[in-house]
Amino acid sequence: MHAPDGSVREAYAGYQEWLGAQDESWMRSKNFEAESFFRRTGITFNVYGEDDAEERLIPFDMVPRIITAGEWRRLSKGIEQRVRALNAFMHDLYHRQEIIRSGRLPERLFRNNKAWLPQMVGFNPPGGVYTHITGIDLVRTGPDEFLVLEDNARTPSGVSYMLENRETMMAMFPELFSKVNVRPVSDYPRRLANSLAACAPEAVAKGSGGKPTIAVLTPGIYNSAYYEHAFLADQMGAELVEGSDLRVVNGRVQMRTTIGFKPVDVIYRRVDDEFLDPLTFNPASVLGVPGIMDVYRAGRVTIANAPGTGVADDKAIYSFMPDIVEFYTGEKPLLPNVDTWRCADPDSLKYVLDNLAELVVKEVHGSGGYGMLIGPTSSRQEIETFRAKLIADPDNYIAQPTLSLSTCPIFTRKGLAPRHVDLRPYVLCSPDGVEITPGGLTRVALKKGSLVVNSSQGGGTKDSWVLDD
């Protein structure tokens, strides 16, 4: 909110003026009001592997994270460039593999990659879209420096929190939004529905009278993101289904209704590849639909995101993203990566082992803040334990420098205090083009000094504002 000299940054000028006129005790009461709002609405997430608290309230901070219109324009160009490159990369990887033939990407990165699906080879998904919904995790390390921390192209989550954060802020501080001109995000469900409909199989969509039937496929109520699955289905006017609600009938995926089975045209799946079809992948799965991959490959249903897109989430692949962007766009990346050491490389592994206390080490398929080491905040024993893991399986890890992440203020009992943040903008891709939600989800490390923003690891969320011109 403030520059090093104490002056208010341009993005926060309007908000700071409003905040300075508010009574502190009133602000504290509003903070409690926000928590009760989230509790009444049921905005929760599940934590696996913990007996004492399976379901938790998502922590929310009421001080917004604010980005100027000019900053957002620059970010949007880089995000769109990256998402277009990711989609082209997915198509190439399952077809001619030109990037591997060129020597820009080692073949071993996907030949032994469990996220790469041979069942997708040679198949063109409806509309040519693989990455229908993408979350690009960004961190800021300077006034004009944003870096991409991760790409989420499999089943990116958190968008419901983005929407509820905004609704909560508008309910608590309506006068603030008349003072500060903030771009809206409430139309995301409508745009998501339109984007998914545009990706429906052409023949199927015509047979549905031009309005495809969309369903959100959830693993069920015990999934950590079930609230989001139900929320998005409701907001889109789509069906919320589990695998047991669907079956293949007459060559179509159809859902059970009170008057019989009804065909489904587009499935926004929140079930991982492994469990999607027990006839194709894990035979023990009860979460998916037997035969759905046959229907998909026959062009009679759209699955979003396309099976096999998890390759793009691989952190070893991530380290090649500058080459991937340049290969498919012919342009230098507008958004740089974080420097990354691939532990599969002997020289890189030696450097990482020699500097573990200063680095962040992650599993290539890890997520949610699990399976990682943050060297500067780890004990000597934790570092040595991780050293043994690296030596035993170096291909499973990458390492990055410990970044000096930007901070945003949060509201505490003692007033405003800085905490580290990241940003996850949500990107929709269809044959009609690429749409980027203005802002996205800001995740914040609520613990003082912490760099881990994941809600499962003690992080929270805050509203993300993009100012209008």
Automatic annotation (TrEMBL):
InterPro entries: ATP-dep_Glu-Cys_Ligase-2 (IPR051680), CP_ATPgrasp_2 (IPR025841), UCP005522 (IPR016450). It holds the Pfam family CP_ATPgrasp_2. It comes from the Bacteria. Residues 64-445 form the Circularly permuted ATP-grasp type domain. SUPFAM superfamilies: Glutathione synthetase ATP-binding domain-like (SSF56059). This is Circularly permuted ATP-grasp type 2 domain-containing protein.
